[in-house]
Amino acid sequence: MFEQSLRTPEWQDQQAAEGRTSDEIRAVRTASVIIGVNAGLTVVLEFVAGTKVNVLPFAAALFIGYYLYKLRSRAENLAIGLSIIVATLMPAIYFWLLPLPGAVLQSLLAWGLSGAVLLLLLGQAGPVRRRLAIVLFVVLTLGTYCVAFALLFARHH
Question: In angstroms, how far is CA 77 from the centroid of its own chain?
């Protein structure tokens, strides 16, 4: 009992960082930021599009992103598992349920986010892999969001 009372958040942070290289810490924290940015952009897009904002995926992404930033290994495992599911299962569902243009846009978002997270969290993500993950996220995910916002703007004007 006394031993658990010593497990303060600061102690947990120190334990999580112990034994990791600075490259590993940067990679995990970059994945955390990417997940948070994607969650924020999703909410903004849903709000601008006038659709119902689904809070649960947003909250889950922020929760995972926060714990990734805190270097918790369970969050890393969860993010890897979810990324694999999102990269494989979600595009199949999109192409089954949505018209082709919507399925392609949604799949690009999924592949950009999942690919970047997997590049950062699997194996040793040095500076080159971190840059590649960021480029993948920017090109596929942020590029797709730009297209989506442009289509919404064109539809309203």
Answer: 13
